[in-house]
Amino acid sequence: MIPHNVPVEAFNSSFTYAQSAGARSAAPKNISLDDLANLVKPYVDKYPDLSYNPLREKDLKKIFHDFPDIKSEQGVREKSDVIILYYNGLLKIDIKPAVEKAEKAKSGGRLMASSISFGSINSLEWANLYGNITMIGSYRYASTRAVDETIYRFSEDDRRDGYLGNSFQHAVWNCLIVREAMLKGYSKNNAILFTRNITSDHEHDGNGQRVYRDLEAMDLHNNLSARSWFDNNSSGSFWPFALRVPTESSIYDAWYHASTNRNFVICNGAVSIPALFPPNGWDFLYGTATANMGDRLYHIYPVPPGC
Q1: Phi and psi for 106 in degrees, rounded to 5?
Q2: What's the predicted TM-score (pTM) here?
Q3: For the chain: N or C, fewer Cβ within 10 A?
Q4: What value does the mean pLDDT of the chain take?
Q5: What average pLDDT does the segment 242-253 reach?
């Protein structure tokens, strides 16, 4: 059931912010991730929230109205990805006036994450968030918690790009995004794919092009290692109430253990990370959702003696 004033394309994952009503660009300008999450929350709250277990009566009532063929909570859980896609499609239309108003009220800069998050968000990341508006708050939460936990466990020097603390941060970040998406009602497969897409897009430049450097290879490897670990340590769906996901504390502990016992350094002049995955290592790192990776982390610095 698609409302008459909503373009059917809005329910396609490739439907962009610009297409939604002739917006000036593919990403909102001058709005922080924190502001964006706060801006969309009232709109998200209008729609059913599949994170409740069992589902709230008001959410079931609306879903049954919008999806007449669904008659039970089991049916909702079985069709959760379709339901989420539907309400995200409506949200694309709902938020546009508020985003445009916020754009006009702000000045300077591109879309920035909070000062303790993962830096600026590029247009590709925003495209993923725009197709998954219900995940914007969760994406902010996962980013912030990953940074907070890294600050707690690693020195300032070890948190720099290329260092082991940054490896830990990326692993925790990916695990938390998958966890948040599954708790929101996404199937495990779609939660992992969303996380793969947005974290791989984070490693593109401002023109949407892949970046082929050791730092990006390190990040992509650690992202993939984390998603693969999460895949192996989670199962089920909400129905029949068999959802199993690692706790946040177990994620932090597992990757801190990996950072001290399963870390590998790339020596200068040694084989590069992409070369470890022939024949197309960069395609593998950017595009693979999960693999048989183990819980290993790569870092580049500090360079050990003999490298």
Answers
A1: -105, 165
A2: 0.88
A3: N
A4: 85
A5: 93
Closest-CA residue to 26 (of 202, 207, 196, 203): 207
Structural tokens at position 8: 């059917």
Residues 233-249 as b/e (b if ≥16 CB within 10 A, e otherwise) read: ebeebbbeeebebbebe
Closest-CA residue to 227 (of 248, 199, 203, 202): 199
Q: What is the predicted pLDDT for the residue at 137?
A: 95
Q: Which two tokens stand for residue 152?
A: 């707690």
Contact 132, 95 (CB under 8 A): no
CA-based nearest residue to 234, from 176, 154, 156: 176
Q: What is the 3-state secondary structure (H, E, C) of 214-262?
A: HHHHHHHHHHHHHHHHHHHCCECCCCCCCCECCCHHHHHHHHHHHHHHC
User: Six-digit token pair at 284?
Assistant: 């593998």
Contact, 128 vs 194, CB < 8 A?
Answer: yes
Q: What is the DSSP string of 122-181?
A: -HHHHHHHHT-GGGHHHHHHHHHHHHHHHHHHS-TGGGSTTSHHHHHHHHHHHHHHHHHH
Q: Which two tokens stand for residue 285?
A: 């790192």
